[in-house]
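Continuing from the previous page...

OK, I double-checked the sequence for Glycosyltransferase against my notes and this is the correct one:
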Amino acid sequence: MKVGMVVNPNVLCGIREHAMNFLGHLKTPCVVLSQDPEATSHAQFFESAIQQGVTILHIQHEFSLFRNPEAFTELLEMAALGDVKIIMDLHTGPADKAVILLKSWLELSALCIVHSDNMAGAFPEAVQVPLAVSDESLWAPEADVLVEDSQPIVGTFGFYVKHKGFMDVAQAMATVRRVYPGAKLLIVGSHVLPHQDAYFKSVKNTAQTGPHLLLDRYMSAPEVTRTLAVCDALVLAYRTNGVSQSGAVETIFTAGRPVLISSSTLLSHVPTDVSAGYFPVDASARKIGDALLEVIEKHQLPSCVCVSRTRLVARRGSLLAGIYDSIYEDLSR
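Thanks. Re-ran it with the corrected sequence; updated structure tokens here:
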């Protein structure tokens, strides 16, 4: 048995980080196979996998990483004919027009893996594996908040894309600053594609109405955690729903600060051993600001226990690797 992990190690994103987090801890023999998102055929890619002795293709799948559906279908068909088992590791759900296509891919696969209750509900035949595993030795201590003159810091993070709600958070700071004029906005962000330029500039212009720090470089999950640990309140203001999940949930809770999140289904997989405050996915910027004020003034979540004083979730590659080793062993029987 040999696993071919299909993930592009040169693409900076949460999916790559998730895979690379446990790869080095696997007991199962494994090689990393990277694919060209624009490829019109994966025949050469598959031939290379066969030559390396791969018997299981574990595909870390996100639709933007395989932009040619015909070529991807061809890859799965070649694997089926070549007696290579496919694991489809779904990190995002399909758009409506891609539902039938995805179902046909799953029929060609030996196993489907998802990472949230939301996705498990949509794909009941799938095996659910967490993106993070609790480990008491890695729980973060409560951070010292670096605030001068009692002026709070509000933090968020992610790629600069519209559905993450950065613009709404930037606008919400106007409400926070009615009480705390020096309140600072910290966005730990990154924009890597040209189509993200306009949104990044809009967020930057809005944030300039008050104290702010907008970072624009990709950071690993541990770097994000350390950076956000200086904040008084953290927020994920996702503005859309869908059959998917976001790894941002696990990352933001490791910072040990009070967390507010929108009711977006993309964020529905909050770990069971932590608490969060919620606001509607379509809440106005002012409502988000009011919720942030409540967190800042009470230093706890609305009607919840402060996350920084409860159990925290940490990413632990060795524990995740153990789960995947068991999956590979079962599949090879």
